[in-house]
Amino acid sequence: MLSKKQLFTRGMLDVAPHMLSVIPFGIICGAIGIELGFNPYLVYGMSIIIFGGASQIVFLQLISGGASSLIAATSVGVINSRHLLYGAVLSEYLEKLSFIKKLLISYLVVDQGFAESNKFFKKNKSEQYLHYHLIGTGSTLWVCWQISTLAGIILGSFVPEELGLKFAIPLTFIAIIVQDLKKIDHVIVMLVCGISSLLFFDAPFKSYIIISPIVALFAAALLLRFKK
Amino acid sequence: MTWLSIIIAGILTYFTRMTMIALVSRDMLGDRIKAVLAYVPSAVFPAIIFPAIFINDYGTFIEMNDPKIFGAIVAIVVGYFSKNVIATILSGLISYWIILFF
After folding, report:
1. Which has more confidence, B58 or A181?
2. Percent of chain A at pLDDT above 70?
């Protein structure tokens, strides 16, 4: 049985490699806000209030492009609706927590933290303080996101755009799912999701990001039926 | 006005994070649903990966000789065999840069 501190540290270490993509992305996010002419406090406030990488950039781009604040806020909600799926997966492991703890820990659920903690949870179901792993991944990502967006706001885009560091984002997610390429059912689900995301890319409010996972989960349900 | 919409966006985002964790209990999810939920990473992350590789900043499809495709293939091969996140990201970025700059 691991202690709370051990689990927290393990979470930090498991998510640490993803800083290679999170930090440049945070810098880009902060710098874009300033380039588009937003108040620095506002750009930074988003990192605390919304705390969701891609959705923050979309929000700034929509507002500066003249979209209404209602459309901008709705888009953020739609883009981040994928967290509903993460929550559904995590709820099984977090159900013993008190309601207040569930409310607090929810704030820290983000893509890479969910992915790494979920991998750990699957292998260590019997640990008593499992949620400390999620706190470890989530708070590491939170701190790095705050520092890197702040750096982008203060220093501007000191990461040259020609380097194309945005490309680190898909690479981080490739690293997360690449081992599942061993399983043919997962490969099919990934292809269904990926191809749908390209087909629905122009759907309103960036909704491709939730439509294609739903399509892919239906495909997964069908596959499970065939397996039986 | 913008502050207000950020706060609304923040509340919406928080609700997407909190709803399922705080309000769903194990008994509400049947075995079938749990089996489907095991596919969530494979069903969600390609929706981030594919557009980031195949669609450029202007919302159109990239050319087939785009360096991002080469970088992604290298990252997949290196990631598959190394099982290492840092090696996956760095190999993808470096191979992308090699094609981009040389």
Report:
1. A181
2. 99
pLDDT score for A157: 66
The tens digit of pLDDT for each residue in A144-163 reads 999 999 999 998 867 777 78
Determine, for residues B46 and A55 on separate chains, whether the beta-carbon distance falls below 8 Å: no
Output the six-digit token pair for A143. 């701190």
Q: Is there a contact between A69 and B30 (Cβ–Cβ < 8 Å)? A: no
Contact A193, A215 (CB under 8 A): yes
Cβ contacts (< 8 Å) between A99 and chain B: which residues?
A: 22
**Does any CB of chain A come closer than 8 Å to the CB of residue B64?**
no
Strand partners, B55: B61
Where are the domains positioned within chain B? 1-36, 39-102
**Per-residue model confidence as pLDDT tens digits over B51-99:** 999 999 888 899 888 999 999 999 999 999 999 999 999 999 999 999 9
Q: What predicted TM-score, i.e. pTM, was given to this entire model?
A: 0.95
Local structure of A67: helix, strand or coil: coil
Q: Is the CB of A23 inside 8 Å of chain B's CB atoms?
A: no
B41 and A176 in contact (C-beta within 8 Å)?
A: yes
Q: Helix A131-155 to helix A111-123 angle, to the nearest 10 degrees? A: 160
- Give the C-alpha separation, B7 to A121, whole Å: 32
Report chain B residues whose CB lies below 8 A from the CB of A106: 14, 17-18, 21-22
Q: Residues 155 to 194 of A: which have CB under 8 A from any B CB?
A: 163-181, 185-186, 189-194
CB contact under 8 A, A171 and B89: yes
Q: Which residues of A77-113 are buried (b: 16+ CB within 10 A; e: fewer)?
A: bbbbbbbbbbbbbbbebbeebeeeebeebbbbbbbbb
Please report which helix (H) or strand (E) contains residue A191, including its range. Answer: helix A184-199
